[in-house]
Amino acid sequence: MKPWRLALIIVLVGLLQGSVAHRLAIGRAVPDLFVIAAVYASLGLRWQQAGLAAGFIGLGRDLFLDHRLGTGAVLFFVLGAFLGRLRTEIFVDHPITQMIVTLLIALSLAAVQLVGVLIARRPAAFGLAVQAGALSALYVAAITPLFFKLLGTLAPLEAGDVR
Amino acid sequence: MSERRSQRPICAHCIAFLAVVLLLGFLPARFTSIIQTTFLSLVWPAQAATTKAARGASVVLSGFFGSFRSREELEQLRRQAEQQRALITKQENIIRRLTEQLRQLHALEPFIPEQIESVVPAQIVSVETSATTSAVIVNAGSRKGVKTGSALLCGDVAIGTITQVGPWASRATLLTEVGRSIQAKISRTGNEGVLEGAGEGRFVLRFIPREADVKVNDSVVAPAKSKFCPAGVAIAKITKVHLDPADPSYTISAVPMVDYSSLEDVVVVRRGEASILPAEGSDSADEL
Fold this sequence. Notes:
The structure holds two protein chains of two kinds.
Chain A: H1 3-19, H2 21-24, H3 33-42, H4 47-65, H5 71-86, H6 95-119, H7 123-154
Helix pairs in contact in A: 1-3, 1-4, 3-4, 3-5, 3-6, 3-7, 4-5, 6-7
Chain B: H1 2-26, H2 29-66, H3 71-108, E1 116-129, E2 134-138, E3 151-154, E4 157-165, E5 170-174, E6 181-186, E7 192-197, E8 203-209, E9 219-221, E10 234-242, E11 249-256, E12 265-271, H4 283-287
């Protein structure tokens, strides 16, 4: 994947996350478009490239969403590298596979966020974070094929990158 | 062999990337805040344009789907609009009366402490919502005089506080964010308590003693000793009152006075230190 395409994905997803995501929210479920972008990039690249691409997407998420700088980047790097390794073992083109992978990644991120809530000692937020994390993960998984199509049109993975 | 060699630079990139982001993670919050606010200031024009486009699309879509509404629904909406219009007229009259009373008070007492240091109009550029965070980005920063800790108001309703300030844009945390708490009082009775954000556009008002006369639809406002916004500014409306027999105080549910999902034009208000008003007849006295 060319760096400018990755930058395009990060900026586009950041802008959509800030302007559209809250309008797409259903109750407690708010879609995290950065997760979909990271899974999209990771499933099409070798593990090192996948880790880097997902890491940069995570860094973009930290910058756009006011998270502790670097945490999302490291987390996404690890998950991206893992998915990059996994992609040869699974049929990544199938929408159901994409949805399941995104669901698992979103749930892992929600679990890490829960740890953050515990560390920050915000007990009032814990129950809400559990519910919202699970519901948002399901929501993100449900809209994954649609966003994969959108990202595929805007920033298609090159033949050399894939498989 | 050659493939392994070609992968080596990528591995080096991975290590360099991880080193940089780990370094960023250990930087003091002051520096990371500067990085984030600078980034924010760079992207806000694009963010503002996207938000406007999304808002426009939302209006068009709601208009399109609205055309399919049944006649009963439209009739109901018309009735609601009439009620709202009547309410606005009533509130306008109240404001007019209060303004007149304020003018009379100023004439009587020239030593009323000045509460507002600066008012900066701004627009919401983007909204950040997740399970535990609720924040908005506004298109006014330090260049317009915005400072950390200022209150964010929509009309005359307090909705958040400025937490990060960049040159051209700032980030404000909404009052409904989980775990946030501010001092507040019930306007009608004057009882003071702590208003906690409960997420999803809800509040919980605590420490209102059981002797207090609390009713649904009472408004919750900023008290006189509020540190972040001028006294008397509306914040929330009570929706549910619960009193546990064993509890010495009420547990009160409240919702914001304005719908946070449709915020557009806002003002950043900075509360100043108490000062003496100029004598009646001067320009500043008129402005107030």
